[in-house]
Amino acid sequence: MALQAVLAFYVARTDFDIFPGQELVLYTIVALDALFVVMGAVTRWRVWDFGLIPAVGAVVIFIGAMAGTPPWVWNGADIQLAAAWNTTAFCGIAYVLLYWAMNYGVIAAYPDDQGFED
Fold first, then answer.
1. Where would you find the membrane-spanning parts of this chain (predicted)?
2. Which of 5, 29, 62, 78 lies 20 to 30 angstroms, CA to CA, from 55?
3. pTM
């Protein structure tokens, strides 16, 4: 999520026009990612459900940008911007997959409620 925040910030700071209002939307994703990282690092709250908001938001923005001008190389963007844009979406997809694996029981993020006995 921290990587997604940094990359969304980088995309928001460029002057490439993806869609109207892109800066507000991308800065919102950055703020939500930063809140998730800080709350996960300094509190004992289980913030995994909250993390779905910026993760799904990044994927929706990626799909929605297809109606505008996505920052890809063949649309006139440089390679760094195109890589940042695509990796932002991949971070969201990876988080959703990890969230699914956690809820399905493939990985354990909440060891205190997995039924382990000492």
1. 24-43, 50-73, 79-101
2. 78
3. 0.85
